[in-house]
Amino acid sequence: MKLDIVTIFPDYFAPLDVSLLGKARQRGDVDAHVHDLRGWAHDRHRTVDDTPYGGGPGMVMKPEPWGEALDAIVPPGSSARLVVPTPSGRPFTQELAGAYAAEPWLVFACGRYEGIDARVIEDARSRMPVDEVSIGDYVLAGGESAVLVMVEAVTRLLPGVLGNAGSAADDSFAPGRMEALLEGPVYTKPPDWRGRPVPPVLMSGNHGAIARWRRDEALRRTAAIRPELIARNALDDADRRTLSE
Ligand SMILES: CN1CCC[C@H](Cn2ccc3ccc(-c4n[nH]c(N)c4C#N)cc32)C1
């Protein structure tokens, strides 16, 4: 997968060089490049913002630097999808992360101030698919944190990145039977810690009983914390018994 990120804070993306994603980059599974938008701002002060037409608070990101940046990064006819984080975007979900993991090339545009001049998105839509996406119902100061979240959620789904292909398939919200259940509790050594034992079933070696216990814990947690998600799952009689307890 090819990733390009345009931002006025390139240092924000130092985390892309660590952990699993850093290894994926070193292996060549992910070809990621971070671009400083100010490289396409040609005045002495490298200006990327100006006052909003119609008045109002704050500043708006000028269209010219963005237009030149996207022209330079995405040549006409290439197959990039532009992803623009914004609080007014469609929700970023595990399903969308899975769709993005199948894309050959994602370009992320990190806005700041009050956002990017709307004509930048309009112009980009004339030559590539553009998604305006939100990572949640709260307001950040810019798009960089959202891009870090999306890049992690997407690249962990790429073959070989997690190093344990089964993990992503068992995620909450991953397609499949555990469609939208919250993760249950996890445990590791020691078997007893501060007088708190690990649930005995997890050390029983009975894989059927372990799977049932894990699903029951996920059902109970989901019913308690996100009851609206229960209906999104294919429940069997055993599930319904657990939820009726
Ligand atoms: C007061 N104003 C309101 C409009 C947005 C201004 C800050 N900002 C500028 C660019 C930009 C990009 C994303 C986000 C953002 N916030 N929350 C989310 N879930 C996001 C996502 N994805 C926020 C952003 C602040």
Commentary on this structure:
- 26% of the residues are buried.
- A hairpin with a 2-residue loop joins strand 8 (192-193) and strand 9.
- This protein is an alpha/beta fold.
- Helix 2 (63-73) packs parallel to helix 4 and helix 3 (94-101) crosses helix 5 (144-155).
- The strands form three sheets. The chain has a five-stranded parallel β-sheet with strand order 2-1-6-5-7. Strands 3-4 form a two-stranded antiparallel sheet. The chain has a two-stranded antiparallel ribbon with strand order 8-9.
- It has helices at 19-27, 63-73, 94-101, 118-125, 144-155, 165-169, 207-225, 237-244, and strands at 2-7, 31-36, 49-50, 60-61, 81-91, 105-109, 130-134, 192-193, 196-197.
- The longest helix is centred in the last third of the chain and has 19 residues, at 207-225.
- It binds the ligand CN1CCC[C@H](Cn2ccc3ccc(-c4n[nH]c(N)c4C#N)cc32)C1.
- The site of ligand JE8 has 18 residues, from strand 5.
